[in-house]
Amino acid sequence: MFKNILVPTDGSELSDSTVERAISFAKDAGARITFFYAQPDFPTPLYGEGALFDPTTPEQFSKAAAAEAEKILTRYNASANAAGIESNGDTVVSEVPFEAIIAAAQRNGSDLIFMASHGRRGLSGLLLGSETQKVLTHSKIPVLVYR
Fold first, then answer.
1. Membrane-spanning regions, if any (predicted)?
2. How many domains does the chain have?
């Protein structure tokens, strides 16, 4: 049924759990996985009274974000490969993660987006996470939400 599953991740514990379940799902479905990480863009500095000075340059920030993406994607690809699942990683810099997720699914020919329901706890955890909600609202590709 599904041939290529996109699994967006941020490297958190919740993502680890989602990745484990996505690998199991892909194995049952006979599908491959594309892990996706939306790298943060360099934050716009704030100026004025009480502004914090950040000594990090945009180049340093970009390098660190790319290294973090590589580390996360390598770890998840190793987990998938150990389970006998073909996988690859994809990453882009994006200020709007839900748009980057949908674009990655289209770019990689994914026929399913498998993502966590939320990253919050307590009362706010009762609602879907904002990025998940936005992907559900805007994607033409089916989305499986894992809780």
1. none
2. 1
pLDDT digit string, tens, across residues 75-99: 999 999 999 999 999 999 998 999 9
Q: What is the pTM of this model?
A: 0.87
CB burial string 16-25: b at 16+ within 10 A, e below: eebbebbbeb
Is residue 6 in a domain? no
Six-digit token string for 44: 């716009």
19 lies in a domain?
Answer: yes
